Amino acid sequence: MTHFIFVTGGVVSSLGKGISAASVAALLEARGLKVTMVKMDPYINVDPGTMSPFQHGEVFVTEDGAETDLDLGYYERFLKRSKMTKLNNFTSGRVYQDVLNKERRGDYLGGTVQVIPHITDNIKARVLAAGKGFDVAIVEIGGTVGDIESLPFMESVRQLMVELGHKHSMLMHLTLLPYIKSAAELKTKPTQHSVKELLSIGIQPDILICRTEHDVDADTRRKIALFTNVRPEAVVVCKDAKTIYEIPRNFYEQDVDDLICERFGFDNLPEADLTDWDQVCEALFNPEFTVRVAMVGKYVELPDAYKSVNEALLHAGIRNRVKVQIDYIDAEQLESLDVNEALGDADAILVPGGFGERGTEGKMKAIRFARENKIPYLGICLGMQLAVIEFARNVAGLLEATSTEFNRNTKHPLIGLITEWLDERGELQQRSNESNLGGTMRLGTQTSELVEGTNIREIYGLAEISERHRHRYEMNNRYIDDLEKAGMKISGYSAVQHLVETVEISDHPWFIAVQFHPEFTSSPRDGHPLFAGFIAAAKNQFQAKA
Fold first, then answer.
1. Is the pLDDT of residue 53 over 90?
2. What are 222-271's pLDDT values in tens digits?
3. Stated pTM of the model
4. CA gap 105, 103 in Å, rounded
5. How far is CA 315 from the centre of its chain?
6. What number of other Cβ atoms are within 10 A of residue 200's Cβ?
7. Averaged pLDDT of the chain
8. How far apart are CA 41 and CA 168, in angstroms?
9. Which residue numbers are catalytic?
10. What pairs with residue 417 in β-bridges?
11. Start-to-end Cα distance in the chain
12. Is pLDDT above 90 for 56?
């Protein structure tokens, strides 16, 4: 039977519930347990797919094509043996949509549809389904205790804890210990009130994770335990760390895994081996030097919009023993700036994914600078499409080349809307310019075949790869001959429909652009070959300049 750990947050948002939950998951996995994770989001959107990155940050895509909360990216990066699926993230909107669809079909036989039991039963069923087949499922509830919108989730957790019983469920509550500088002391009252809020809805926390910038003495921990009805050893201090990848070690040193194993009756498990996490931290803290990557995008005011790309670059730095400094360049502003001044110090240039025409001229300005000055370039999704357009305009002589996303009446539609494609299950999907925006993209893991003798095939060391996609537009195959005659190599195609997946420039030291999103499969312990190769090229660029 699956054991469930429910994770809530109190006092303020952005304390790091997702990272804390993922660190606990990594610790339990290191003891040999099979662990999965679930994120329940209380907003009314069906999924985050149509939300602005400024509102929500990155949309993380799972293998089976779910558009999910960015916390699922943390879950996959911290877990080695589990991948997230559509079961691992759902919203209030998804739950209400499901219940209302059943009501319209008459599934409730004319009964009154209510939050309790209909909404809560749907939530509970989703949680249990996601945990099936695992030793432990860690379930994070989005938002902060006391939020009106999260109350149905809290009630569902209360019911589940009663139904599962003491030996198969527990609750971990993340809270804040603020430091009052004028009084020179940590304050526990916000934590006490946060737990009081939990108790008011019938939930008693079993473990408290106390976020703080300062050390917490034994007396303060005992005081917190006394006023929150939690064992003193279950008051866990989570002090600000140099890197999030230190947190599994931090929790291990405070016996968090032993607390959980004792509660769930997991006897005779091996001790957690955190050697790989220690190696990650050692490499992070001892780089040989720093390389600078210019990331040219239109959401650069909010780095969380590119969270997986940022992390993938960090992981590539670990593999290459260098620190990666990301210089965020606003693509729209770059259109009116001196490109040499803006990008002259970059050891490599990256254009990530995105949607819409705004900022595209600035991105192509950066791509041209990388191409002409032999600076390592990596383009992802839209970054590939714009690399193709820039090359077509300035090298192949197709001056009006563009995407139908920006101009439906263009003379040279290098990039166009694909109207039919096979999804990750091999099922035919269809769309048009009038289709809904939500859930209508080419999503999830797809297989690509890499052309022999190309740089990207050498980097992967494989003839066939599987990577995740999230896009509506594809390169127009009618222009392949024009581009290849001008010097751009089409180095990878989708296995089924022969769609262009990767391009590169042969007479450039390192110029690769891909239609898929390699950042979604990078991890701190294993990295990703494409990002590792990109940062290796940046390292060579830095050393050549030195």
1. no
2. 999 999 999 999 999 999 999 999 999 999 999 999 999 999 999 999 99
3. 0.92
4. 5
5. 14
6. 10
7. 92
8. 23
9. 381, 517, 519
10. 473
11. 59
12. no
